[in-house]
Amino acid sequence: MKALPHPLAPELRAVSTRDLLWLIGSLVLVIAPHALRAPWWLTLLTLCLYAWRLYLTLQRAPLPSRWLVLAVAAVALLALWVEFRTLFGRQPGILLLVVFSGLKLLETRTHRDAAVAAFLAYFLVITNFLYTQSMLTAVLMALSLLATTATLVGFAAPHRESRANLRTAGVLLAQGVPAALVLFLLFPRVQGPLWGLPQDAYAGMTGLSETMSPGTLSNLAQHDAIAFRAEFEGDAPLHALRYWRGPVLWDFDGRTWSIGPEYRGTPPLPTEGRATYRYAVVLEPHNRPWLFALESAASIPDRARLTFDGQILSTTPVRSRLRYDLVSIIAPEPPRTEVRGAISRALRLPEGFNPRATALAAQWQASANDEEIVLRAVEFLRAGRFTYTLEPPLLGLHTVDEFLFDSRAGFCEHFASAFTFLMRAAGVPARVVTGYQGGDLNPYDRIVTVRQWDAHAWSEVFINGRGWVRVDPTAAAMPRRVESGLARAVPENAAMPLMMQERMEWLREVRNRWEAVAHKWNVWVLGYNPERQRDLMQWVGIRDADWRALTAVLFSILGVITLGLLVWSLRRLVRPDPVQKAWRAFCAKLARRGVERAPHEGPRDYTARAARSVPDARRMILSIGELYIGLRYGAQSSASRVARLQRLVRALRVS
Amino acid sequence: MIARLLDRNPRLANWVWGFTPPERGTVVLVHRRVYIVPTRLGWLFGATLTILLIGSINYALALGFGLTFLLAGMGIAGMVHTARNLARLAVSAGRAEPVFAGDSAQFRLYLDGRVAFDRPAILVRHLASGAQLVLDVPAGGVGEVVLQVPAAQRGWQALGRVMLETRFPLGLFRAWSYIEPEARCLVYPRPERSKLPPPSAEAGHGAMRTATVGNEDFAGLRGYQASDSPRHVAWKAVARTGDMLTKQFAGESGAELWLDWQLLPGALPLETRLSRLAGWVVEAERGGALYGLRLPGVEIAPAHGDAHRAACLQALALFKLA
Fold first, then answer.
1. pLDDT per residue as tens digits for the range A369-390
2. Range in A77-86, A646-655, B173-182 the model is least confident about
């Protein structure tokens, strides 16, 4: 056999203008979301490369030499390096792929190269998920997949209408959904990452940090990003009771509060209080270990621990959306004891800062006990006509003094910092607690959504005989802050995120509805992890589902799906013609009697011959022949005639 | 190695390929006969999916898993579609007109889709000669291919094994099937151009109006006979009178030409003899003579016309082959 070129081999099939248009269309769709983040020149360069390739095809011009393509690649690399100072991060790496899609087109001659470019498009779709995995992204993904797949179908069927190819691509994707669903649910999930990730892999996550200085929280409060959502069993607690506890800050250097070293020991978990709440939290990734709990947590989630000051820390930083269940008790009996060294640490202050505040505190200390000091400080803040603002004036060296006596305007971190300072200066052990306060209760799905603008800081003081007690100095000065949120606490015309403004009520309505759906998406699609997979397995009755069991179940279901598809494809193929079937049965019956139909023999000759050889069934044979000829070759076809033919053939006795 | 094994054991080959050649009538590609393997592009697609999967695990991308698995599901569906593109396709062979050795036999194959969907991009490839064509079988219709298979030797040439292949819709899988429909083409000996022999002396009983043979001077019209070549029908006269009339040329009616095996030099090899005789037949028919053919054991009475020419050439084609 001669080795002739194979007309179906993709290496030998040149791309047509139509193929190229489809390919470029799919690529444009795929890089569109990347363009939102890419430097403008890079998007422009990539589009120019696409346009160049298209121009060459339209002009029937030869493709540029390899050296020219390499030169363009080198320039793109250099420009990227200038922009990012590295090529190995996540962002520059992905942008490099975007440019490569254009370069690949420039050396695409055959369907093989074009198919590789289409696979690159699939790859570019997934890189977008590193930034966003919203429902909108999913819709865009579906569109990109459809276009890219239609492109591939076009390569395989160059003479077919594009519409038909698009339809085939849609059918293929739709038929892939059951298998995809099974794989998604049952493919053994491993908790990543498998290896070290680039440094900037978790860049851009917002949230509370280990430190708090003037401006930290007021900056954070300008973000409308979601911190976490909480889904309560039953009613959610009132807004003023929703203190979500986060990092506890012990050490003060005159300006910044920080967490400091951790001590040994854990406080006992409370067992009773005013009310108990059970709820699940879906925490957005923030790249820190702490988990937020409604004060005070009465249980610890899996793979998390309690520190000596009551923080709940995950064993690893939260880098993907995390769901955990919790029980919290409002206003519990606090533990009366404290670990050694903690009390003296809660009194420590740096030397030489805030003389005026120190003097005021010393005055209180001289004339009152601890509880009275706390009350006096609260009273001092309430009477001081403080202003609550998202844009506090800048403070100098003595941050507490300047806030308390000069500017009198600040955000919750100023209040918490000043109050804690006053307490310590007056000899009352105190610490700063950061976290979130409040959160919006969505009336549609009863879920409390806590955003970064709900970030809050408050204080805890240690009272002998009562333990650590929460004091919220912001609430003392600005009661509306904790009763109904930030929006009502700051003055009307203050700069605030658009969505928080009061007159945007209808917009918030829309947003609430959208978020109720988005939450479901987050929990059920994006939040599907090894634990949920185990739960699902248990729910269907497979206990201790290890990867072997999962794989076995997975492959059996996939096999069934493939078989189902085969049956579907045959359903329209194997459609036994009842007339033909009856005729065959008739021939077989006569053949047993020795009257076999010769291959060349038509039905009329055959039945005539058969009627002669089997005279006792003569009439029957002849009418079968007539019926068959009428049904097979004539215009007359009716269900009753077919039935009659079948009946006659069944009734025929020739032996 | 496997190919050689199958060549040596035809029964094993028949079992492997699922049919016994040649196949009479319409060949239906049942599932048993359609094979499918991933193409190189298919393996590349698999590698891409693996990379996507690892990336999804590493970065815990739920949508990444979704994308990877959707593509995997699409690949499976594509495989089924590729197999379906050939499944239960009905192939039948048409009549192949006789050709002279050295020309190409035109084997006609009809691919009946028999279904409501179309079957695009099906490659039909004649294995022995490499003749190949790609065609789309329309929905509910029949696709027709003509395989131009070189005819080297006189006699009956069987079509032989034909491969049907498709990679539609994604190019990730390649499905193929072998068929060997019963189709044959009669191959006449290669005609050798040479001077016609003189009319034989036996032609005495015919009224010889003129001695010149091969003269194509128009001599008149006569009534049409079934064996007359359409080329000699006087179509203008037919249109005018409504009667079928045949043009007669001078020298035609009387000259009986015997194309005799014996007229050729005895030393001539068999095939050359047949070639020369075939050349004479072609030439005599073109000249419009009445000619007969005489071979050892075969005699065809003088006549003329397409049917007569075909009979003579067939006798030459099959001489000593049966």
1. 888 888 888 888 888 888 887 7
2. A646-655
Which of B55, B75, B39, B48 is CA-nearest to residue A116? B48
Counting one residue from chain A and one from chain B, the pairs whose CB atoms sit within 8 A come to: 204
Model pLDDT for residues A395-446, shown as the tens digit of each residue: 888 889 989 888 888 888 889 999 999 999 999 999 999 999 888 888 777 8
Strand order in the sheet with B298-303: B256-260, B290-295, B298-303
CA distances from B279 to A111, A434, B101, B195, B316 (A): 49, 108, 12, 9, 11
CB atoms within 10 A of CB A596: 14
CA distance linking residue A413 with residue B309, whole number of Å: 111
| Close Cβ partners of B242 (under 8 Å, ≥ 6 residues apart) | none
Task: Please give the ipTM for the structure prediction.
Answer: 0.78
**Six-digit token pair at B32?**
């048993």
pTM as predicted: 0.69
B223 touching A (Cβ < 8 Å): no
Q: Whole-angstrom Cα distance, residue B272 to residue B270?
A: 6
E strand segments, A222-364: 226-232, 243-249, 251-252, 257-258, 275-283, 290-291, 293-294, 304-306, 312-314, 322-330
Q: Which residues of chain B have pLDDT under 50?
A: 203-215, 251-253
Chain-centroid distance of CA A268 in Å reads 36
Mean residue pLDDT across chain A: 84
Residue B75 CB-density burial (10 A; 0-12 exposed, 13-18 middle, 19+ buried)? buried
Nearest CB neighbour to A569, from listed B39, B64, B84: B84
Given a contact cutoff of 8 angstroms between Cβ atoms, the answer to whether A283 and A275 are in contact is: no
A112's tokens? 């093989």
| Distances from the Cα of A548 to the Cα of A132, A186, A380, A544, B40, angstroms | 32, 11, 66, 10, 30
Token pair of A604, please?
């009329």
For A411-520, strand residue ranges (E) read 430-437, 440-442, 447-451, 455-463, 467-471
Q: What pLDDT does residue A573 have?
A: 59
For chain A, give the percent of residues with pLDDT over 90: 25
CB contact under 8 A, B121 and A123: no
What pLDDT band is residue A500 in, cutting at 50, 70 and 90?
Answer: low
Cβ of residue B16 closer than 8 Å to a chain A Cβ: no
Q: How far apart are CA A424 and CA A347, in angstroms?
A: 5
Q: Which amino acid is at A472?
A: D
Q: How far apart are CA A193 and CA A196, in angstroms?
A: 7
Measure the CA–CA gap between B99 and B153, rounded to whole angstroms.
10
| Higher pLDDT, residue A297 or A216 | A297
Instruction: Indicate the residue of B24, B81, B123 with minimum beta-carbon distance to A8.
Output: B123
What does the alpha-carbon distance between residue A120 and residue A154 come to, in Å, rounded to a whole number? Answer: 17
| Neighbouring-strand partners of residue B38 | B173
Backbone angles phi, psi at B178, to 5 degrees: -105, 140
Q: Smallest Cα–Cα separation from A123: which of B69, B117, B48? A: B48
Nearest CB to B72; choose among A141, A164, A180: A180
Q: A115 to each of A9, B44, B120, how far by Cα in Å?
A: 12, 10, 19
B residues 26..85 contacting A (CB < 8 A):
31, 39, 41, 44-45, 48, 51-52, 54-81, 83-84
Tens of pLDDT, residues A203-212: 556 778 888 8
Is it true that the peptide bond before A296 is cis, omega within 30 degrees of 0? yes
Q: Which of residues 166-205 of B touch A (CB under 8 A)?
A: 166-171, 174
Distance of CA B253 to the CA centre of its chain: 36
Which residues are bridge partners to B133 per DSSP?
B124
